[in-house]
Batch of 2 targets.
Target 1
Amino acid sequence: MTTPQEELLPGTRRALLHRIAVAQAEGRAPSLVATVVRGGRAVWHGARTSVDGHGPDENVQYRIGSITKTFTAVLVLRLRDEGLLDLGDQLEKHLPGTGAGEATVADLLAHTGGLAAESPGPWWERTPGSLRPELADVLGEGPPPHPVGRRFHYSNPGYTLLGAVVEKLRGAPWDDVLRREVLEPLGLDRTSAHPRAPHAGGWAVHPWADVMLPEPSEDLGRMAAAGQLWSTTGDLAKFAVFLTQGDGRVLSAESVREMRTPAAPAEAADVMEGTSYGLGMQIQRRHGRLLVGHSGSLPGFLANLTIAVEDDVAAVVLANCTSGPLLSTVGSDLVRIVAEAEPRIPEPWRPLREVDPDVLELAGQWYWGTYGFALRVTSDGLVSLEPLSGAGRSSRFRPNGDGTWTGLEGYYAGEPLKAVRRPDGTVSHLDLGSFVFTRQPYDEEASVPGGVDPDGWRGIG
């Protein structure tokens, strides 16, 4: 794949190169490669390496660790969309007898299943998967350390169970299902369960000396669905586009949006750090923007995929060292550099082709008690209700086809909105989930709950 470098300004390209050069040098990574995506395709690729005359390109495979979990989540959402499972199904329905059966599919996707973070026994990332041939070997004998659904606790065994669900319902190995249903449709021909040349070797860099040690590369066996994959910046760039836009051959835009939506309860530390977790995707707030994606690591490798959906920018960063550069920071910095240097140009404003007069009649100022709101009719066929102060509850509403609307966001998500009319057809008020919005504060001509004092508004006298 030839990357169209000219699509970014020279100053932006230099800033991107400088950032990965600093990361590779200060992080002491044998090699580090990165790609930036904008407008649905890769627009920049960069590489830094300790080997003179050899710069890995976007086709060199690196192990991507837990970014594998996002691929597994896609497979599970496909099963849900086909009606083969429900996210509310307890694991027991599909995999009876595991001892983790109270956890739901959604719990496992969001790491709220209460399971341990790691598999018992020898360090599973550096030992053969043959040591853990059965699910019981992955889960261990003890009870889950946390109650189901109460807290976010990252769990590799949880994604092992999801991989087993995929195999059970598809009747085929996890990696075969992934290749057939995701990799081939999306054209990810350099993503695989086992390394294919050209690929990087994994290294451990001594923390107190500039020397290296080769890391083993094990087949994770049963735990493959949690971290087995190898991929390239070129393939992960395509995957980033899919996670932003969806693809009807694999998963709809609505379903990938669901993956990007917080699904795990946030603890105090998470709130302070601005982090959350969706369905197979990490979510964080950094530099004032919402970022989604996933990081990954296995002995010898680090990986990061970061997407700023609103900015239409994504970054992929891969390195072949066990520890060193903090790739989540590098990824978010690459996104920030492009988003700030070359901000997204919005689509032109265009008016509605037609509008229902009964809907247009509702546009303008409304009051919930004494709080002022503006209702707007927007070009996407929705209506929005926003506080005039700029702070407070706001939402867009989609039409239901019967003169009512349903809230899409925040406090009003799922709440019904309707215009209540008088016998003569004029609008009395808006009813939003039992809240009454009137044209004037506490309009005495509307049905305000509790009534309006007959003496009206007054001063202090």
Target 2
Amino acid sequence: MSGANGSSTWRNWAGNITARPAREVSPASAAELAEAVRRAAEDGLTVKAVGTGHSFTAAAATDGVLIRPDLLTGIREIDRAAMTVTVEAGTPLKRLNAALAREGLSLTNMGDIMEQTVAGATSTGTHGTGRDSASIAAQIKGLELVTADGSLLTCSEKENPEVFAAARIGLGALGVVTAITFAVEPVFLLTAREEPMAFDKVTAEFDELFAENEHFEFYWFPHTGNCNTKRNNRSAGPASPPGRLSGWIEDELMSNGLFQVVCSLGRAVPATIPSIAKVSSRALSARTYTDIPYKVFTSPRRVRFVEMEYALPREAVVGALREVKALVERSPLRVSFPVEVRTAPADDIALSTASGRETAYIAVHMYKGTPYQAYFTAVERIMAAHAGRPHWGKVHTRDAAYFAEVYPRFAEFTALRDRLDPERRFANAYLRRVLGE
């Protein structure tokens, strides 16, 4: 068996989760992966696949067999008639985006980070923002996965449709994804307009800003009344990317270099955070640029953080955000990271955070190494009161009893899990909590 070796400690990107698997395997094909699952069963071990560890939950942690995706990468097939691309599960999104661009193709929508593998990102419900276009998982047209008995199952709207309805966001509970087929379209241009705006104005005009833009999002800076808004809309061109210097100042100095210093200072001396926030949120300037989608949707994130994000019914988001603002203002909390608000249309995936409802997201972050429990717990209380659904890959404390209430199709998912993985080959502590025994 290629790539099998002894145990070492696995850590996620944020460093808040560690695991010591009994063994690690790096299969180079779906057949090798299936063999690893069968061998694990013989040895009575559970199996988990990891991506790049970009989840903040223990979704991929295991003391059994850890499947590393490093050799399961690359594009299998581009079908220009069907306008689809089939990729190996371990392919990083940044490699997929660059390869598609060379072929004159693009995904329709994506999140703002592209370090994750395609399987890791979709299995946890990673999303960007969109009025009409949904999460990365909603763009899936076909899936291939190794199930608990070591067999290879393919699913789509036509083939095994009941598996397809759930497995696009499968949390690693139904099997190990080996390949994904995405819908793609001819590459297009987006014009991004970034503009500072007062909190009261953004929240008062949220419905219009959402309705008028294909992709709208904004960030509120805690301890201030300031926000930064971003509108991405399709454009006839021409392309005009940010200038090298201004792009470097915004994306590297402000978002990574200077922000790292500010966060470190805030961690050491929390009392400085509100005054720094007032200065830095006012330092933002408006800018407009036009480029191909992945260069507009995504940005480098080198400052490490821990994150919690909740999906709410879209009509509830402004009220909930005002509650978060009031909470920060009346508490001793000191929060250096902006709060992010995005949207998604309703989709038809069983455990999608946007399943069956028009959705808006509120994401809160804390700098790595800063105590986050008090802040996240207080925010989570607000979100749960609005029937919020937490992002599967981000910090939360909800359990199966809660999910059974906020996901109408929760029982459909767990019944499918019972059928595909009756012995819980793919179980771990996280899945026991969120899906039940």
